Amino acid sequence: MSAPISAIPFGHILCWVDGSDEACRAAERAAHLAKSLGAKLSFLALGDEPEYSKGFEDYARIEGVIGPMSPSIANNVEACLFQAVSVAADIGIKKAARLVGAGEPASAICDAARTQGADLVVIRRRKSNIVQRLLGASVSDTLTDKCGFAVLSVG
């Protein structure tokens, strides 16, 4: 007879939302999974790095704002991120983190997961054809192979 497993299999789930319907559904599933496991939950949206603006820098200095501008994210990504955090709150996860980053998806997700201490990454299932699969590795492949994360791809 084997000993019971007492450790939570995943203690922190990071879910990437990109504004697609599939990503929004994946975020809902990630929230339910985190709730069932008692895991921490973070949602990550990726945007574009803001261009340098002397006017904003002057304004920020006058207003006492310290640090760089946050990346800007598209409206559909913002809506998906808002929906994800709302769903998590509705099912009882009150402290789901809302993260905004920038960069190439696989690298940015990998960096965020490491920074946050995530041990499972949830992403949308990408619909691809055979040519796309032959031409390059998917985000899921990169996260698994090069970053060493467990990846759950849902849609």
Strand content: 15-25%
Q: Strand arrangement, largest sheet? A: 3-2-1-4-5
CATH topology name, in short, is: Rossmann fold
How many whole angstroms does the radius of gyration measure? 17 Å
Structural class comes to alpha/beta
Low-confidence stretches: none
Distance from N terminus to C terminus (CA atoms, Å) equals 38 Å
**Could you tell me the mean pLDDT?**
81
In a few lines, what is going on in this structure?
The chain has 155 residues and is of the alpha/beta class. The chain contains six helices and five strands. It has a single domain, classed as 3-Layer(aba) Sandwich (Rossmann fold), CATH 3.40.50.
Task: Please describe what this structure looks like.
It is a single chain. Helix 1 runs parallel beside helix 3 and helix 4 packs across helix 6 (139-145). This protein has helices at residues 21-37, 54-63, 75-90, 105-116, 130-135, 139-145, and strands at residues 12-17, 40-47, 97-102, 120-124, 150-154. The protein has 155 residues and is α/β, with parallel strands linked by helices. It has a single domain (12-154), classed as HUPs (Rossmann fold, 3-Layer(aba) Sandwich), CATH 3.40.50. A 5-stranded parallel β-sheet has the order 3-2-1-4-5, with helices on both faces. It has 6 helices and 5 strands. The protein is globular, with a radius of gyration of 17 Å. The relative contact order is 0.22.
